[in-house]
């Protein structure tokens, strides 16, 4: 089945919304893709007729097995491309998302295999997001937002969810990258700033950004 770029974008968006637990309503799909609610509803109905989603009015869309397989394949392309652009082509981590968005629909399975082989079959992209396997299995993430982390415990940054280039450049500047150690020292009340110890350097970051940084406990 040859699918349009728009169809693939919708399937990927629905997968992400489902995986985040917020549900793929037509309004949330429309917001994510920056289209009208009417356009989102029409496309979701089309995807339902294609057997790629189950759709009920006022309840939203859920991917069928066929739809999920396609979504995971596009996500695999995207995340492999991000890592390739960073490690091989010299892009910065704040540039790779937009570039991969343009390329993800156009690479062949052979090209995907070559990238994976060249990168030694990676499991995570530059932002710490897991890369689905070729068989369509998404590795599980055992991580929580930094804003939920307990004080005086050592964590490892595992994932940065935000794709805003300015946010990513700021996080890179202060050293908030996947794989670094971080410790929460203090949390101001009423969603105030969080004081952290980042590789022996004290930093204060906003609560909103902290909840886009996912951390895992250091193995004890």
Describe the structure.
This protein is of the alpha+beta class and 220 residues long. It has three domains: 5-63, Arc Repressor Mutant, subunit A; 73-140, Winged helix-like DNA-binding domain superfamily/Winged helix DNA-binding domain (Arc Repressor Mutant, subunit A), CATH 1.10.10.10; 144-217, Roll (SH3 type barrels), CATH 2.30.30. The chain contains eight helices and eight strands. Strands 3-8-4-5-6-7 form a six-stranded antiparallel beta sheet. Helix 2 (26-33) packs across helix 3 (37-49) and helix 4 packs across helix 5. It is globular. The N and C termini lie far apart (48 Å). The relative contact order is 0.10.
Helix and strand topology:
Layout: H1 5-19, H2 26-33, H3 37-49, E1 53-56, E2 60-63, H4 65-87, H5 96-103, H6 109-118, E3 144-145, E4 154-160, H7 165-174, E5 181-187, E6 194-198, E7 201-205, H8 207-210, E8 213-217
Antiparallel strand pairs: 1-2, 3-8, 4-5, 4-8, 5-6, 6-7
């Amino acid at each position: 089945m040859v699918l349009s770029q728009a169809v693939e974008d919708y399937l990927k968006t629905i997968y992400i919304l489902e995986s985040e637990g917020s549900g793929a309503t037509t309004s949330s799909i429309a917001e994510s893709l920056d289209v009208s609610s009417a356009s989102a509803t029409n496309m979701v109905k089309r995807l339902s007729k294609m057997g790629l989603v189950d759709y009920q009015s006022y309840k939203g869309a859920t991917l069928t097995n066929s739809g999920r397989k396609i979504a995971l394949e596009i996500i695999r392309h995207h995340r492999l491309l991000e890592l390739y652009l960073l490690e091989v082509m010299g892009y910065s981590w704040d540039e790779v998302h937009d570039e991969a968005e343009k390329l993800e629909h156009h690479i062949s399975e052979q090209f995907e295999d070559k990238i994976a082989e060249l990168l030694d079959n990676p499991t995570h992209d530059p932002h710490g997001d897991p890369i689905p396997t070729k068989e369509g299995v998404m590795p599980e993430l055992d991580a929580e937002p930094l804003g939920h982390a307990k004080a005086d415990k050592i964590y490892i940054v595992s994932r940065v969810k935000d794709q805003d280039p300015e946010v990513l450049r700021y996080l890179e500047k202060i050293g908030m990258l996947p794989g670094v150690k971080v410790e929460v020292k203090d949390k101001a009340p009423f969603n105030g700033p969080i004081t952290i110890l980042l590789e022996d350097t004290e930093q204060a970051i906003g609560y909103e950004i902290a909840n886009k940084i996912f951390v895992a406990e250091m193995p004890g």
